[in-house]
Amino acid sequence: MADKRFFAKSGSYSIADLAERVGGELMNCPAPDTVIEDVASVEEAAGSDICFVENRRYVAALGSSKAGVCLLPRNIADRAPEAMPLIVSERPRRAFAKIAALFYPQEDHRTGVDQSAHVDPSAELGDGCFVGPGATIGAGAKIGAGVKICANACVGEAVVIGDGTVIGENASVSHALIGARVVIYPGARVGTCGFGFEVDESGLVKMPQLGRAIIEDDVEIGANSCVDRGSGPDTVIGRATMIDNLVQIGHNVQIGKGCIICGQAGIAGSARIGNYVVLAGQVGVGGHLEIGDGVQVAAMSGVSNSIAPGQKVGGMPTVPINDFRRQIAAVKALGRRKSDQENK
Amino acid sequence: MADKRFFAKSGSYSIADLAERVGGELMNCPAPDTVIEDVASVEEAAGSDICFVENRRYVAALGSSKAGVCLLPRNIADRAPEAMPLIVSERPRRAFAKIAALFYPQEDHRTGVDQSAHVDPSAELGDGCFVGPGATIGAGAKIGAGVKICANACVGEAVVIGDGTVIGENASVSHALIGARVVIYPGARVGTCGFGFEVDESGLVKMPQLGRAIIEDDVEIGANSCVDRGSGPDTVIGRATMIDNLVQIGHNVQIGKGCIICGQAGIAGSARIGNYVVLAGQVGVGGHLEIGDGVQVAAMSGVSNSIAPGQKVGGMPTVPINDFRRQIAAVKALGRRKSDQENK
Amino acid sequence: MADKRFFAKSGSYSIADLAERVGGELMNCPAPDTVIEDVASVEEAAGSDICFVENRRYVAALGSSKAGVCLLPRNIADRAPEAMPLIVSERPRRAFAKIAALFYPQEDHRTGVDQSAHVDPSAELGDGCFVGPGATIGAGAKIGAGVKICANACVGEAVVIGDGTVIGENASVSHALIGARVVIYPGARVGTCGFGFEVDESGLVKMPQLGRAIIEDDVEIGANSCVDRGSGPDTVIGRATMIDNLVQIGHNVQIGKGCIICGQAGIAGSARIGNYVVLAGQVGVGGHLEIGDGVQVAAMSGVSNSIAPGQKVGGMPTVPINDFRRQIAAVKALGRRKSDQENK
């Protein structure tokens, strides 16, 4: 499936091996040693490919699939072609993700410091680092083992980066302590000066931004996203939180672990976000608010009050999601032509 | 008009020549050989300049203009000063655009590979390419004729770029097949990893993103915009589609030809956008939706359902544009002080 | 308070000296020569630190603070610990900003042109400039004294930059006249081509963008923000206007002085913004509109009509802020379950 120019495939695996790796159950599989060579979509899969089907919506495609083996939940196993071996899994998409990573490990074997990189003599680099062309590393920076600093990325003075982290092309990082296995995608900005000042009749006075950006292990920060450093307290992104592209994180924001912050969302200064929070695309969160663990905010919503843990909310400003749905229905009714109006 | 430090003017043209090039009709023009030297606004134009007036709103300015010739529609020709030669055109702005491009062709004559650029020996470069200082081109990349890779831009391994395309300063491109005459503006990110994972109690599993970004001929992608590559299927931007700054295009999105996607709009994963669609500024489009040909979406609207071809819609979520206008009026009425309320 | 790896502290000051510098009044201070070594938050301050408390919300923290001296307004002075010296100031946060800048002047002493920078021989550089690794400066550029062009930043041909301005890492500037003491943060794009074209059945015609971006003195443009150049007229950002991250400024926009444009706001082409205007986060402003002096627009609002000076507005589209609050209340009521409904 994958274009071999861009993605290096690694190895092949028996059906039995794949089933075991994802904790799935073999079904309709007389030859579990059959070798699978690649992943593919249910429509495009050939006899040496594994595919997956997540739910009933795709059973039509499943019926005519030529896949060598299919991951699917038990309740649609009877919809597969008669001769198709199956791996039954209640989370077929998740299992497929693991298998795709097996075939395409996307390992980055580059190491060494390009001669055009600018590494300050006082910076420390761990074993197996890669520092690409034009990348810069400032004085006193401490870079862990296996870190990849890609072409034209800029790492500021005294920045600390943990093992296995990647700083993408043209990204820049300053005033930051960054954990292990973090991915900063191309063009992202971490640790830039926050937006703080005092205004009065005599003009603006900038508030010095004397905090740091703390990025914990396994965080990802999307392309062209921005994480300002704190103003005195730190800005903190918790472990394994995933941040999409073009997201703005203001100074002093604290985000817990395992959150998902979708594209173009923005979080204003000093907001506190709990663990496992989901902010959908283009959501805005006001400054100094608190969002509890597990909160989910619908796309384009505006959070202007703190939200208790576990709530699902939507709207501008946000209300409980069912209230939001009723708002939508009511406002839609207001917009209909009189001749189209339902009786109330 | 244009600051000669930044824009090189090229040539001069007779009034007759200009009229012919835009298919316009000369009127009130006893000396069609009069030479025009430059373009200008109706207010600033001197006797050797050509200007344009699009509609009645600008007739006051027209009346006192000193332009050497004016492009305008027939229905306001009688509002021009008596001695002013005219070129009658039903699309004066469009005609002016063509004439401005004639005077200011903005050709980029730079060629050659800067000695500080990093071009992998296995990359192929067509004739007349420019590779600027600090730019990088990865192994196996195939770069067409006349391509400009500007300073500090990064082109990844195996990327294919068609003739005449420009990759702006500090932009980065990977996992992508890019057509001819494409413009990727400074800081844009094309082909970056999509935002896809499976979540459960044991944590996140990232879905490998094994597709590509396909950018067809004549597309433009604005400054600091992001186009993620597909997850297995490809992300596709169709021919001559124009994407403004700070736009987010998620993985697997398919956009048709001739679309206009304005600043800060965002399109979530796997949405399908038809041909000639217009998304105004800050619009959000939800994942997996389908937007038909010719649809126009008002600024800041949120598309959460598929939209049939030809519709004009607005609102959050979107409704037909006239319903949206009625919604606005109704909600405004809800917000007025009681003492201000109109009778219904 | 500040991490000394990232922020160099400079000097120490007596309480009396600090009070004088901010025009504050000493109170409860038997030893005004006591030396203060650092700034800190009210919670973390030790005996050699100065902190501030802005209002009654923080009096609990004030009561248990160990600070050596505290800036506060007169009306809460009686809530400080008995032995704590005080500096009474009606603007304690502003005073603190000045004192923090005194302790942490964040001066950038770098000078000189890195040997990997690419400075066109025809460019002029003032005294004391810094041009970082991989930075490029085009032909005919005129760079003032003490300007810092950071690593991998790109300054285009003929660009003019005033004294003391900073162009951040990986930022790019073209077709622009930039004043003194301006800060362009990392990844910002200034002077890029505007989004203008004429569409008809035969396709798109691009309107040449022949204006400039004029950035007046003391302006700041946030990380990854974009300011397009004008199409013929110029795009102008007035003196001391502050622009946050990921903001989009379209072509021909004119912004007055002292404005505050928060994160992810967008201003469409040819809009005119007065002086001291505040646009909160994610606000959108339509094209060709006029926003008067001192207008304040609430977060995520959509401005689709011109706004008279001094108005506070909110909503989509914007209405006077009190109307917006009533709209919110009314729409919230529409969304409540019937069983929860208040009588009207």
TrEMBL record, chains A, B, C:
Catalyzes what?
a UDP-3-O-[(3R)-3-hydroxyacyl]-alpha-D-glucosamine + a (3R)-hydroxyacyl-[ACP] = a UDP-2-N,3-O-bis[(3R)-3-hydroxyacyl]-alpha-D-glucosamine + holo-[ACP] + H(+)
Q: Which pathway does the database say it acts in?
A: Bacterial outer membrane biogenesis; LPS lipid A biosynthesis
Q: Does the keyword Acyltransferase apply?
A: yes
Which Pfam family, giving just one, matches this sequence?
Answer: LpxD
Question: Keyword set for this entry?
Answer: Acyltransferase, Lipid A biosynthesis, Lipid biosynthesis, Lipid metabolism, Repeat, Transferase
Residue ranges of domain UDP-3-O-[3-hydroxymyristoyl] glucosamine N-acyltransferase non-repeat region in the record: 33-102
Task: Give the annotated active site.
Answer: 251
Q: Offer an example of a GO molecular function term for this protein.
A: UDP-3-O-[(3R)-3-hydroxyacyl]-glucosamine N-acyltransferase activity
For this protein, the Enzyme Commission number is 2.3.1.191
One term under GO cellular component: membrane
Checking InterPro entries in the record gives: Hexapep, Hexapep_transf_CS, LpxD, Trimer_LpxA-like_sf, UDP_GlcNAc_AcTrfase_non-rep
| UniProt KW Lipid metabolism keyword | yes
The record's Gene Ontology biological-process terms are:
lipid A biosynthetic process
| Binding partners and assembly | Homotrimer.
Q: What does this protein do?
A: Catalyzes the N-acylation of UDP-3-O-acylglucosamine using 3-hydroxyacyl-ACP as the acyl donor. Is involved in the biosynthesis of lipid A, a phosphorylated glycolipid that anchors the lipopolysaccharide to the outer membrane of the cell.
What family, per the record? Belongs to the transferase hexapeptide repeat family. LpxD subfamily.
This protein is called what?
UDP-3-O-acylglucosamine N-acyltransferase
